[in-house]
Amino acid sequence: MFTNGKMKALTLSYDDGVEQDRRLVAILNRYAIKATFNINSGIQTGASSFQKGTVQVRRMNVAGLPELYRGHEIAVHSLTHPHLENLDDDAIRNELAQDKINLERIFGQKVCGMAYPFGTFNDHVISIAKDCGLRYARGVVSTHDFGIPQKLLEFQPTCHHKDPLLLELAEKFIKSKPAEPELFYLWGHSYEFDVDNNWQVIEEFCKLIANRDDIAYCTNGEAFFG
Ligand SMILES: [Zn+2]
Fold this sequence. Notes:
Structural class: alpha/beta
Strand content: 15-25%
Number of helices: 8
Distance between the termini: 9 Å
Order of helices and strands: EHEEEHEHEHEEHEHHEH
Radius of gyration: 17 Å
Bound molecules: zinc ion
Mean pLDDT: 97
């Protein structure tokens, strides 16, 4: 069960610490919906930028980020966003442990979670993540269901915000009166709303699912560990 004995929880997970997170956070705060933001502390600077479609996406400078993300959770996304499964042990450990240390210092909060960069991992990466003190870590494959993940270091989200089933799933979740706890876990990158010119997707989703008495609005960590 979640906060106040609720049987349903919603949590969001957004990656890469990009400029568009400012607009996303403003929307989420307006609806009192909470998220976890997965940050690459080794490249978290305005100088780190990449092209997506016609949009030049930029990460944000660190200054001001603790204030921006206040009320939300910060989680590991590795130092530099590599394919972790291609690295040797020391490099994997450095990518995860050092990101955790940096994020705890920058944000002044305990960091216990992760989103795998590119959503990729193998058993070896999972075991190192565990060694580094991480308690949950997410991939990018939609489950389209609301079951509570059993293996928290290799769980998959309910869906991405671009999923054509997004609103249908939200309606189903809203109507559900489950006997066992259920979790709606949404993920994405906020820059995609600019690239796809579809900010209305997250606005509509939030409007539909927010402010319901039987849903707890949680960060990832709150959803899994209270
Ligand atoms: Zn990423």
